[in-house]
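Structure first, sequence second, as always.
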């Protein structure tokens, strides 16, 4: 049974290669025919041309016949008529060239598709076939689908992580470039999170699986890219419609030519040069190239329509927290109104805050770590939600609370004016000693990114939309030069605002994906930051794996190049074909010359589409 399956598989693989074998046969036969013509032996080679043309054309004939029976009027009709007419006119050389066009078209399409979808193919190749399950110091190879949550999985040197997990043994560096687009290796120690698809360094590490293989980040990326490449954006749908009109246009030009000249040879020449290949192949190749380039840079395109819509957007709406900012509080201002030094205050506060789970506690601890301040022990620690935390540090009684509650612990009348940001009042021995101010700091690239939107990308309106306090939102807006700021908005209110602007003009919405999912659906184009979130459930058109606004800018430029090159290939190729048909109808181009010229137009259109790949490589350098 297995032998029969093997033979069947070999036969299928052989069938897949038949266009390549036929292409080589035709090229060899054409060269042979040329040599025979030099020695007046073309009769023998002509017979071979008829045989190869008939046999080679049969697979295409049956495919065309099926399409015509179902009423699918495509460019195949032109090729069928041209081939039949070439045989009728006893032009086997032209018939062979028409067959060469069809076969080489398949080869070109396969080559271009393979070249354009390099990222997806690389992603697929990097998925390991087996994982190493660790049980009682022994390793067992198991299939990825057999991995269960909490299984211990060993990742040997230079192997790819099969699932998401947490390091429980070992340490080393891992390459996450295919997931984030960043070339730097990431240090991994016990407790570090490992993403599936990461390549291990020189040390063996053991992870505890946190997700099943099918739900891990790498599998989600591959699945999303597959779906994106299969979907048709409106630009491609439009070209499909144009291709349908191309067939009647070709028949009209050929028919008028025959009506006025009664010359079937000219009629045949018009048919041989007619080609909608730039529309049928070049445009999808450009789109697949863009999806692969984006993936290489850590940008996952879920909906290919963003490549078409993004260049048309004139309004940009940005969420604040986690998008324009880091989404994490940072200690920015220390107002000292006591006799203690700033270091002494931070030492006491951080020593107490390390017992807290409040979001601001980590900001204080990070600041103390940056300043290399040594912490001490705290006792009698008490934390009540809404009131703050208190305790004893070095025999000093500390209370860390907000401005409203400060009156319950000390004289609050000498508090300095309120500042922009989140405040913590530090009370030492019943006396207000300091005010700590925390801000969600903007990303270093935010200012330059916002300022160039109007200059390079023609955005006439930039809007800041947030659920944060009015003072913080307006402060950030003024700092970045954003004049329209919406603050203290609920997810429902955000949705209404995005909907309103999208109805007025093409609108881009960029958010962190946590509570922006409904707004993503209503925007013309949407981009989500998803470094710490699930990517499969995102409703945005594109997902940035490494939170960085420069990646958004790269996607904008990529969409511009994609739209420009796709239109160049489609419109330019069609114009070349139309011009060639007119020349053929006036007798300036023979059927054989038309077939060769058609092939040249196809090659130019397809390689122009692949130019997107080479442009991106040059821009990286």
């Amino acid at each position: 049974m297995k032998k029969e399956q093997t033979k069947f598989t070999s036969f299928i693989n052989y069938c897949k290669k038949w266009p390549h074998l036929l292409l080589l046969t035709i090229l060899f036969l054409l060269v042979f025919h040329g040599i025979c013509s030099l020695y007046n032996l073309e009769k023998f080679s002509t017979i071979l041309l008829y045989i190869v043309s008939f046999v080679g054309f049969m697979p295409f004939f049956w495919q065309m016949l099926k399409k015509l029976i179902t009423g699918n009027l495509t460019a195949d009709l032109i090729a069928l008529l041209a081939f039949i007419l070439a045989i009728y006119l006893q032009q086997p050389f032209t018939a062979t060239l028409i067959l060469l066009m069809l076969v080489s078209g398949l080869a070109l399409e396969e080559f271009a598709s393979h070249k354009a979808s390099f990222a997806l193919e690389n992603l697929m190749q990097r998925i390991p076939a087996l994982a190493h399950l660790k049980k009682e110091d022994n390793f067992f190879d198991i299939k990825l689908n057999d991995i269960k949550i909490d299984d211990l999985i060993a990742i040997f040197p230079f192997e790819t992580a099969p699932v998401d997990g947490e390091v429980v043994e070992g340490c080393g560096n891992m390459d996450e470039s295919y997931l984030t687009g960043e070339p730097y290796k990431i240090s991994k120690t016990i407790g570090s999170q490992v993403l599936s698809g990461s390549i291990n360094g020189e040390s063996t590490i053991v992870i505890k699986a946190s997700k099943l293989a099918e739900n891990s980040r790498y599998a989600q990326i591959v699945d999303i890219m597959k779906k994106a490449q299969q979907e048709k954006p409106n630009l491609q749908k439009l070209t499909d419609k144009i291709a349908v009109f191309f067939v009647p246009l070709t028949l009209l030009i050929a028919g008028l030519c025959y009506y006025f000249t009664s010359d079937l040879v000219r009629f045949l020449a018009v048919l041989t040069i007619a080609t909608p290949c730039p529309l049928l192949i070049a445009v999808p190749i450009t789109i697949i190239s863009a999806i692969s380039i984006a993936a290489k840079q850590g940008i996952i395109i879920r909906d290919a329509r963003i490549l078409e819509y993004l260049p048309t957007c004139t309004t940009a709406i940005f969420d604040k927290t986690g998008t324009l900012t880091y989404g994490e509080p940072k200690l920015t201002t220390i107002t000292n109104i006591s006799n203690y030094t700033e270091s002494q205050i931070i030492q006491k506060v951080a020593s107490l805050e390390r017992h807290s789970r409040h979001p601001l506690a980590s900001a204080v601890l990070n600041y103390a770590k940056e300043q290399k301040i040594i912490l001490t022990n705290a006792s009698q620690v008490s934390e009540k939600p809404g009131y703050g935390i208190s305790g004893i540090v070095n025999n000093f009684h500390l209370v860390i609370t907000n401005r409203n509650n400060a009156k319950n612990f000390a004289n609050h009348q000498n508090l300095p004016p309120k500042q922009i940001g989140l405040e913590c009042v530090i009370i030492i021995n019943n006396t207000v000693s300091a005010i700590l101010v925390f801000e969600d700091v903007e990303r270093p690239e935010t200012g330059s990114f916002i300022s160039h939107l109007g200059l390079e990308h023609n955005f006439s309106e930039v809007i800041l939309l947030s659920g944060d306090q009015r003072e913080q939102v307006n402060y950030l807006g003024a700092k970045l030069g954003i004049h329209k700021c919406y603050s203290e908005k609920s997810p429902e209110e955000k949705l209404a605002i995005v909907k309103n602007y999208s109805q007025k003009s093409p609108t881009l919405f960029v958010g962190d994906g946590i509570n922006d999912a409904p707004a993503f659906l209503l925007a013309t184009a949407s981009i989500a930051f998803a470094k710490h979130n699930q990517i499969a459930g995102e409703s945005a058109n594109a997902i940035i794996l490494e939170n960085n606004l420069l990646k958004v800018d790269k996607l904008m430029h990529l969409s511009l190049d994609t739209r420009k090159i796709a239109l160049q290939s489609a419109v330019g190729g069609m114009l070349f074909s139309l011009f060639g048909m007119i020349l053929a109808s006036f007798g300036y181009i023979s059927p054989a010359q038309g077939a060769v010229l058609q092939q040249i137009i196809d090659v130019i259109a397809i390689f122009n589409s692949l130019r997107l790949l080479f442009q991106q490589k040059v821009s990286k350098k």
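Margin note: The first helix runs from residue 2 to 16.
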